[in-house]
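Below is how a single chain appears once it has passed through the pipeline. First comes the sequence as given, then the structure the pipeline wrote out for it. We keep one example in the README because the format questions we get most often are answered faster by looking than by reading.
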Amino acid sequence: MQFATIEPTASRPDLPAITHEEAAALARTTVNLFRVWHLSDIEARTLLGDMAQRTWARWKEGSIGRIDRDLRARMAILMGIHKGLRYLFTDPARGYDWIRKPNAAFNGQSALDVMMRGEITDLIDLRSYLDAERGAW
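Resulting structure:
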């Protein structure tokens, strides 16, 4: 019996792939975002999927290497969280501070506490919450 070869397809062919140049720009923007969020190195590395300490140090110096698909997705979600906060708060500093403030919607935890659980789904959930709060649904 002979089997036909099935060509693999992208899981979301309707979405263009993030290029290496775009991913590097996204990485630089993420470093800047984490600075205004006043994240520690361990917090930043956790949000980036337990990034190696040495890699994070290089990123902060501006040396961005290869970025895998999971990391690209994490950074894109983090940018969506940032965007949601910018829509909700006209004063950027209030949005930056909001991530550390206790929130009844998160059982008294902060948004950062939620994100620090380390799973990409935690980032997705927070972004969905912000989208709903700003009326994107």
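The first helix runs from residue 20 to 36.

See the next section for the split statistics.
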